[in-house]
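Note to self: keep these together.
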Amino acid sequence: MESAAWLIGGEFEDSVFEAGPERRPGPPAPYGAKRCEPQWFDEEMESSDDVEVLTVKKFRGDLAYRRQEYQKALQEYSSISENLSPTNFAMRRDIREGQARCLARLGRHMEALEIATNLENKATNIDHLTTVLYLQFGICSSWPDLEKTISCLQKLIALHPFNPWTWGKLAEAYLSLGPALSASFASPQGQNGVTSSDKTIKSTLPRSGRDCLLCFPETLPESSVFSMEARSSNSQKREDTLKSIPSRVTEKSGAVLPETQMKACASLIRARLLLQLAQSQQTSFALEKNLRTQQEIEDRMKEFHFQEDALLRIAEVMGEDIVPEKMKDEVYAEVKSGGSVALTGLVTASLEGFEDKWFGKIKDHFCSLEGHFYSEIQILA
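Structure:
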């Protein structure tokens, strides 16, 4: 019985005993790699391969964008889009992102945002969605549109809640939102349809340089960065994201609503807590920068003039989920098996309840201190 059971399904396939492929004596034939001259794609070429022709046009568009010839780059990208196979998803996504960046550079922000929104709805995994959200963030912050900027940052935090630099940019967006809202109630619309709040928004967001608070850290995808000159200074700008907020807090302390300041303060505290978590895995200059940024945030908290118990309460709430054992893949597990539907549901749900999730517990405690906050501001004034 045991012998019969062993024989069933236990036979060897005949292929096991067949001889393997015969090896040819001598060294293998050398591999001849194709060599291309610099900017070979910038010359006229004839090819019957449609994919190769479209690839060459894409390279030309990329080169034109690098040279800041945005209209030419847009034309190249658009010509590809018209002839691209609907099944070539990767190149189609790259082309659409390129079109959005060019349109934003040309001042056609609504068209750029429409493309980015369409890409967001079609994202099939977290990496694609993250890239598209950074693209939207770049478009909105260069416009600038503070409400949409905040929305993009909240979506990014929903996907990556443990990124300290995104929390730092969200804090600055909240600080910039206060004066814009105040101005919108003070002045009527002009005949050209541009409100004074639009002008205020533009004045509250720096254009470029060291004072740029809504800047791109070095770790962001290249597709989300709008200028080549910005890439060379990304490392310095990442540190400046949090470094240059103190003076803006002082300037706006009388204009930003207490609740908005609370959200900005909570975002900065969250960034500090995440930096503290990361420091155990850092050494050398990375650790030095981390500790320096933490100290800057600590000094920054004093600019808000909040009571110590309020800051402790904010830190307690914003650090509830920062537990190393529970952090790994916590967000990704919810969407790994659901595709674009799960991604859309996660982002939509997180956006609708973002402020309740992160700031709801703080509001009740903060309201009792609102009167004291105003009195402190008046004394300081």
